[in-house]
Amino acid sequence: MSQEKTSNPLVPIAIVVSIPVLVCLIIMLTDQGIERSLLWAAIKTGIILIVLGGALSFGVSRLSERNGSR
Fold first, then answer.
1. Which of 1, 14, 31, 48 has its CA 20 to 30 A from that of 38?
2. What angle do CA 61, 52, 68 make, to 5 degrees?
3. pLDDT per position in the chain (70 positions), as tens?
């Protein structure tokens, strides 16, 4: 008997989204005309947006779970 491993459907989406982000990060690190303060501001903004998106997603999933059990 072969047991199929169920994979998380978010993994392929995360890979597709992370590729352009990594390319932009590499370009910002290697280009001499970009200031480092701009790079760090972009990284901080990205982290804040990811945390906010995760919190909103978690909150919405909890609300839908609570409303769906009625």
1. 14
2. 10
3. 456 676 777 788 888 988 998 898 888 888 888 888 888 898 899 899 989 998 998 899 888 888 876 5
